[in-house]
Amino acid sequence: MPVSLAGDEFTAPGLELFDFPPLWPGAPYWLTKPVVLAAVGVILLCAVAWGAFARPSLVPRGLQHLGEYGYLFVRDQVARPFLGADAERWMPFLLSLFSVILLWNLFGAIPGVQFPVNSHIAFPVVFALVVYVIKLYLGFRHHGVGGYLKSLMFPPGLPKPLALVLYAPLELLYTFVTAPFTHAVRLFANMFAGHLLLAFFSAVGFWFLVEQPTGLGFPVGVLGVAMAVVMTGLEIFIQFLQAFLFTMLTAMYIGNALNPDH
Q1: Is residue 6 domain-resident?
Q2: Which stretches are annotated as coiled coil (predicted)?
């Protein structure tokens, strides 16, 4: 929305921030900056993992120390609370999921990159669909289709008439529609909104301090820069938090599929 100050017009950044054309004329329509960043992130994580664990030492240092700290965090804060004895079996998947989501999020705070990959809805949707398929596969495999659905709709202790009329429809709606939808949208929406706010305050500072410096606009520009710095710190925290929450919910869904009665 245009804002007028001292006769100059400032236009706030909008949805064009997320509209990326192909990298060059004639390139495939899907070959855009977010796709390249996603691929670079995966390659970088593979390189870090190789450097950390290709030749592990008894006393961890450098990348190995970082890798082991990340492993312990995911194991103790995500896997064990929801998966119990099955935690170690699912650690490769959960650690990989947490690491790639976190790095893709952090791209939004890295100078020169400054775009969180997960602010494009396609990437969180793919993650959520993979988790959704795994959850249903485990539930059906371990308990059968009928047994898994029965455990969802008729929990122990709840009268069956009440469950049939009220609880069962809501639980089915949550399991097959709401849960995968919110799993993806929560990550996407936070990265989308955070990137938009950072771009707005950065644009305010640049416009009023560099593009159109005026006496009246100088305090606004300084405020924009200050807010951009503050919001960058807050956004880094949110980027970490969203990676943690997405992975935690994944562990919870897998745990519920393996042991639906709990």
Answers
A1: no
A2: none
This prediction has a pTM of: 0.90
Contact 185, 124 (CB under 8 A): yes
- When divided into structural domains, the chain yields a total of 1
Domain that holds residue 36: 18-258
261 — pLDDT class (breaks 50, 70, 90): low
* Cα angle 44-47-52, degrees, rounded to a multiple of 5: 125
pLDDT tens digit string along 86-105? 999 999 999 999 999 999 99
Whether the CA torsion 16, 19, 20, 26 is positive or negative: it is negative
Whether 2 maps to a domain, the answer reads no
Coil/strand/helix, residue 8: strand
74's enclosing H/E stretch is helix 62-74
